[in-house]
Amino acid sequence: MTGWRQEGNGRSGRGRFRPFATALAGLWLGFGAASGHAQTTTERVVINRTTGYAISGFDPVAYFTEGGPLQGQSPHEMSYDGALWRFANEGNLIVFQRHPDIYEPLFGGYDPIEVARGKPVAGRPGIWAILDQRLMLFSSPGNRRLMLANPQRLLSQATRRWPELRQQLSP
Predict the structure, then answer these.
(1) Taking the mean position of all CA atoms in its chain, how far away is CA 164?
(2) To 5 degrees, how large is the angle CA 48–CA 24–CA 12?
(3) Which residues face 147 on adjacent strands?
(4) CA distances (Å), 148 to each of 91, 112, 138, 143, 161, in order?
(5) 43 falls in which pLDDT band (50, 70, 90)?
(6) Which pLDDT tens digit goes with each residue over 118-156?
(7) Where are the domains of the chain?
């Protein structure tokens, strides 16, 4: 386990300033939300900055096979599209290796509603839907409801905007 992960788990003596840093981060995030600025990221695939994993370490195949998110396990990992992915079991890892284009969240895990608006806002693994046989992650329950109410129009808008938006994101 790397030093920064150990510190985050409270296993390092250097973690005693964590409450102060957490409070500062909360103030910063609160300011962004209060001023109307959406949180954005610069990766082509949404990566959790704390864990370093795509879609926060959840198994993308499990959404299809288990009907919902399952946390991936450390022995079942692979690198794909500039991100580290985790899987609940070896079978899901193999399936993803063979068909990443099917199981990777659409738009790299960015919220399709925000993509349609031209903004790369990270989707959350717990707010999801499978539409047209593709996993989509949303930043809010409201955006999920919007997509489910009019999927063809919104998906079409997001699909048109995605190539240009993706070009603006780091590889």
Answers:
(1) 19
(2) 65
(3) none
(4) 30, 11, 11, 9, 19
(5) confident
(6) 999 999 999 999 999 999 999 999 999 999 999 999 999
(7) 55-168
147 Cα distance to chain centroid: 17
Residues 6+ apart with CB under 8 A from 43: 82, 83, 108, 169, 170
Residues recorded for the chain = 171
DSSP-derived secondary structure for 54-109: BGGGB-TTHHHHTSS--B-EEEEEEEETTEEEEESSHHHHHHHHH-HHHHSPGGGG
Q: Is the pTM of this model over 0.85?
A: no
Sign of the torsion angle spanned by Cα atoms 4, 5, 8, 14: negative
> Do the Cβ atoms of 114 and 163 come closer than 8 Å?
no
* 169 or 96: which leads in pLDDT: 96
Position 10 scores a pLDDT of: 35
Q: How many angstroms separate the CA atoms of 58 and 13, rounded?
A: 29
Give the Cα separation of 107 and 116 in Å (integer). Answer: 10
Q: What is d(CA 74, CA 83) in angstroms, rounded to the nearest whole number?
A: 15
CB 124 within 8 A of CB 169: no
Report yes or no: 61 and 95 within 8 Å, Cβ to Cβ. yes
